[in-house]
Amino acid sequence: MPKILLVEDNEMNRDMLTRRLEKRGYTISIAVDGGEGVAKAKAELPDLILMDMSLPVLDGWDATRQVKADDTTKGIPVIALTAHAMEGDRQKALGAGCDDFDTKPVELNRLLLKIEELLKKFPPKPAA
Amino acid sequence: MKSLSFRWQLTLFILMICGVTLSLAMVGLYLYERRQGDSEIQSRLEKTQLLMVGNLAPLLEQNPEATDLQLGALGVDSQIAAAAVFVPGKSRALAQYVRFGAHEVIPPPPANLAKSTFDPRRLIAWTPITSGTNRTLGLLYLKAEESESDKQRTTDLLKLALIIFSSAAFLAISVAFRLGGRFTAPITELAQVASSVQRTHDYGKRVESAASGEIGELIESFNAMLETIETKTSELEQARETAEGAKDQLEEANRTLEARVEDRTKLLAKAVKDAEEASKAKSSFLAKMSHELRTPLNAIIGYSEILREDAVDDGDARTADDLDKVLNAARHLLGLINDVLDISKIEAGKMDLYLETFDVAKTVGEVIATASPLISKKGNTLALDCPADTGAMHADVTKLRQMLLNLLSNASKFTEKGTITLKVHRLPDGESIEFAVVDTGIGMTPEQLTRLFQAFSQADASTTSKYGGTGLGLAISKQFAQMMLGDITVTSTSGVGSTFTIRLPVTVETKKPKVVNTSTQRLTRSPFPVEKRPKILVIDDDKDIRVLITEILDQSGYEVFTAGSGQQGLDLAAQMVPNLIILDLMMPGMDGWTVLTKLQHKPSLADVPVIILSGASGLEMAMSLGAAAVLFKPVDAYQLTAEIATQLAPLPPSYVLLVEDDADSRTLITRLLDTEGWNSRSAINGNAALRILKQASPAMIILDLKMAGMNGFELLEVIVKNPAWSKIPVIIVTSMDLTADMRDYLTPRTVGILYKGRFSREDLLGAIRPVVQNATLSST
Ligand SMILES: Nc1ncnc2c1ncn2[C@@H]1O[C@H](COP(=O)(O)OP(=O)(O)O)[C@@H](O)[C@H]1O
Ligand SMILES: [Mg+2]
Asked: Which of B297, B302, B345 is nearest residue A16 as measured by Cβ atoms?
C-alpha cells in the first residue's frame, strides 16, 4: 500500500486526515513540523508527502525546498495544503517545488483524486 | 536779528530812522551855521581891512619905513588873531600883531604884494595897501578867529541834537511799545502759536488776536491752515483708527480662521488616524478571526464527514442525514467567512492579483466539474458553449474560478428545473473574452438590479431565508473583474431569467499606466516666458510618477524639483520655496495630509498653491486642509498642466471669483462668464478662495454653499467681517434647500441667491451682469 507522509501541526487535522486516509488503505506516517517532515522524508522515503504550509520551526515552503533539493527525496511528489483565500500560496507552493496544491478544509474526494493522480505519475517503487 | 523779538526789532528800527534823520538835520544845521559864521567873519575881516588899509596908507606914504606902527591901535578888533604889514623889498614884517593868548605864526609874504587873496578855510586874507596914486606901499596880513560865541553856538547845536535824539529815542521806544500792542502782539502770538504747534503738534490752537491789513490776513490764513491741518489730522487719525480696527479685525478673523482650520485639521487628522487604525484593526481582526473560526470549523466539517461515512457504512441513514445538515451548515458558515475575508481584503486594498497564463477551456471544464452537483440539485440542466480552441488567457485563474463558481451557484440557486448555460467566447477585437452565465430562473426587477453589486445586498430580505447566501458573492466578483480591468454586467427579466456576463481582457496587465494624455501638443504651457520658469515641487513616493511628471512639466516650461517622501518634500520646499507644489496623498512615513498641514502652518509656504494627486480616497480632507486643486491618478497630463497654468497665472485686474466644489458646475459657470468676456478664477472651497482673495479683491464672488473644507457660510462670514472684502458683492449659487434662518442670514449679506438646476443661463447672467459692470466701471 502506498505510504503517505503527513506533515501537519494541528492535531485534529492530523487525526482526521490520518483516519480517513487509513480507512482508504493508505499507510500514514506523521511529522509535526517542517524539520521533522524533512527528516522523516529522508528516513522513510514515503511515496507521497502531504505538506501543510504554515508549520512551526521550518515552514512548509522551506521544508518542500529541502525535500526537492535532496537527491534521495526529490522524486517524492508533494501536495501543498494551505488555508483558503491565499491565492498567492498556490504559486508560491508550486514555485517551492510542490507538485500539486489543495486548500483546507480538505475536501476529501478532491484530495483523493489528486493523490491518485500523482501516484500514477510517480509510481511507488515496489517495496524492497 | 532773528533772535530779537519783533517789538525790539521795531524799536531798533524806529531808533535807527530817528538817528539818521536827526543826524542829517544836524549836519544841515551845522553847515548852515558854519556858512553863516564864515560870511560874518569875512565881512568883519573886510571891514577891518578897509579900516586898517585906510589907516595904514597915509602912514606908509609918509614913512615907508615906519617901524613904530602900532597895529593893535589901528582898528584890529577882538576877532583878529594876528595881523602883519609887509613892505616891498623886505621879507620881514614891518609890523605885526598877535592877540594876547593866541599862538600865531606870521607866514612869509607872497612874491606879488599887489594881489589881494582870501583863504576862507584858514580865514586868512592878504590885502595890498596902495597910495592915492595907486602905488603899492605894502601888504596887510590878517587872520581872523572864530569868536567864543561861534564856538558856543556849535556846542549848543550838539546839545540840542542830543536832546532831540534822546527825546526821539524815548518817543520811538514808547511808540514801539505802544505799537507792540497793536502790530507786534498779533505777530508775536502768531509766532508763538506757530512754534508751539511745531513743538506740540496740537493743531487745535488758534491765534486769538485780531488785526487789520496784511497781518490780519496772515492770521486768518494761518488759522485756516491750522483748521485744515486739524481736520485732516483728525480724519487721518480716524482713518488710522479704522484701519487699525480693521487690521485687528482681520487679524482676529485670521486667528479665528487659523484656529478653526487647526481644530479642524486636528480633528480630521485624528479622524483619519482613528479610521486608519480602525480599518487596520478590522482587517487584522477579520484575518485573525477567519483563521480562528476556520480551524474549529475544519474540525467540525472533518469529523462530521468521518461520522457520516461511518453512519453510511453502518447503514444508519438517519444519523447520516443529520450529519449532512450539520455539514451543510458548517460549509455555509465557511463560505460566509471566506467571503467576508475577501471583502475586507478588497476594502483594505490588500487583494493582489496573481497573473498566469492558462487554457480557458480547461479551466472552464474544472469549474463545471465542481459546479455540476449544485446545478443538478434543483433539476437544472447545464449547457456549455465553450469552443475547445478558445485558447489561453493571462489572468488570475483563482479569481476567475471563484467568479464563475459564484455565478453558476447563483444561477442554480434561483432556477428550478430550467437550463443554465455557460457561454465562453472571444470578442471580435481579439482583446477581450466573455463568460456569460444564462439562466431561466426567477429573474430580477429593475429595482432589484440597481442594488445588485453592493456588498451584503440581496434582491430582497426574504432571499436569505429562502435561498441562503450573504449577498457578498457578486460584490466580490465585480471587484475581481474590475481589478483585472474587466467588468461584470447583468440583464434580467423578472420571472424569465438572468444573464450575467464577465468580460476580461485576454491579457490582463499588472500595471496600469500611471500618466495618461501625455502627447506634447495638448499640454498647457507655462503662462510665463522661458526665462522666468516657475518652480514646481513634486512630492510623490512613486518614482515613475516623479519621472513622468518631471518630463511633462519640463516640456511645458517649468523648472521641476522632486522629493520621494513627505519629509524630504517639506525640507526642500522650505529651502527653495516653490511657486507650486504637486503632492501625493498616500505615502509611507509622512503622508500627504500631514505634509499639507505642515505646509499650511509655515508662513513662507502657506500661500504656495498645492495640487493634490491622489487615488480615490481622502480627497475631502485634502480639500479642507487647503489644497488648491485635486486631481486623480492616473495623472492626466492635459488636466495637470491646465490646472498648474490656472493656479500660477496672475490675477486679472478685474475678475469674478467662483467658489464651487463641483467640477462640472465650475466648468459651466466659467464658460458662461467667458462668453460674456469676464475674467474669472475658480476655487474649490473657502480655503482656496481665501488664498486667491488675499492676492487681489475680485469684482464679485459667486459662492456655492455646500463644500468640503471651508463651506460657503464660513467663507461668507470671513468676507463680511473683513473690511477689505466686505463690500465685494456675493451671489449664492446652491443646490441646498435653504431654511428660513439661512435665508435670513444670507439675504443682507449677498446680492442674490440662485438655486442650482432651477436657474437658467440668463438668470445667472442677469444676476451677475449689473454687478460686474458696476464693478468694472468703478475700477476703471
Ligand atoms: N441568477 C440570479 N437570478 C436571480 N437573482 C439573482 C441571481 N444572481 C444573484 N441574484 C440576486 O442577487 C443577490 C446577491 O447575490 P450574491 O452577491 O451572489 O450573494 P448571495 O449569493 O450570497 O446571496 C442574491 O441574493 C439574489 O437576490
Ligand atoms: Mg452567490
From this structure: B302
User: How distant is the Cα of B282 from the closest Cα of chain A, in angstroms?
Assistant: 17
Digit-coded pLDDT (tens) for A75-93: 899 998 886 545 566 677 7
How many structural domains is chain B composed of? 5
Q: Is the peptide bond before B64 cis (omega within 30 degrees of 0)?
A: no
B14 Cβ under 8 Å from any chain A Cβ: no
Work out the minimum CA distance from B303 to partner chain A, whole angstroms: 7
CB distance B295–A17 less than 8 Å? no
Give the DSSP letter of residue B379.
Answer: T
- In DSSP terms, which residues pair with B583 in a beta bridge? B539, B612
Sort out which chain B residues have CB atoms less than 8 A from A12's CB and list them. Answer: 298-299, 302-303
Which pLDDT score, from 0 to 100, does residue A27 have?
94
Identify all chain B residues contacting A84, using CB atoms and an 8 Å cutoff: 294, 334, 338, 341
Asked whether A90 and B354 are in contact (CB, 8 A), the reply is: yes
C-alpha cell belonging to residue B70: 602900532
Domain CATH number, residue B767:
3.40.50.2300
pLDDT at residue B512, as a whole number: 62
CB contacts, 8 Å: A93 with chain B: none
* Residue at grid coordinates 510618477: B545
Contacts of B299 in chain A (CB under 8 A): 12-13, 16
Q: How far is B334 from chain A (nearest CA, A)?
A: 9
Q: Domain for residue B157, yes or no? A: no
Give pLDDT, residue B456.
64
pLDDT of residue A128 exceeding 50, the answer is no
pLDDT value at position B67?
57
- The conformation of residue B555, written as its DSSP 8-state character, comes to H
**d(Cα B499, Cα B154) in Å, to the nearest integer?**
153
Residues recorded for chain B: 780
pTM of whole model > 0.80? Answer: no
Rounded Cα distance between B503 and B437, Å, is 12
Cα B76 from Cα B82, distance rounded (Å): 9
Measured in degrees and rounded to the nearest 5, phi and psi for residue B27 equal -55, -45
Residues of chain B with pLDDT under 50: 1, 779-780
Question: Distance between CA B712 and CA B714 in Å, rounded?
Answer: 5
- Strands (DSSP E) found in chain A: 3-7, 27-31, 48-52, 78-83, 100-104
DSSP state of A81: E
pLDDT tens per residue, range B619-663: 677 777 778 888 888 788 888 999 999 889 888 888 899 999 888
Last residue of one domain, picked from the residues B450, B477, B509: B509
Question: At which of B582, B616, B642 does a domain end?
Answer: B642
Let me know how long chain A is: 128
Interface of A with B (CB under 8 A): 10, 12-13, 16-17, 19-20, 23, 83-85, 87-88, 90-91, 104-106, 108
In a domain, B207, yes or no: no
First and final C-alpha spacing in chain A: 13
Give me the pLDDT at residue B780, please.
Answer: 43
Among A6, A12, A101, the strongest candidate for a mutation testing the B interface, having the largest count of B CBs within 10 A, is A12
- What three-state secondary structure class fits B143? strand
Q: A7 versus B243: which is more confidently predicted?
A: A7
Take residue B266 and report the three cell numbers written for it. Answer: 486636528
Residue type, A48: L
Residue B161's nearest CA partner among B307, B269, B29, B55 is: B29
Domain that holds residue B594: 513-642
Nearby residues for ligand 2 (ion, Cβ within 5 Å): B 406, 410, 473
Is B398 in CB contact (< 8 Å) with chain A?
Answer: yes
Distances (CA, A) of B426 to A127, B249, B389: 51, 70, 10
Q: Does the domain made of A3-120 have the CATH classification 3.40.50.2300?
A: yes
The structural domains of chain A, with segments of one domain joined by +, span 3-120
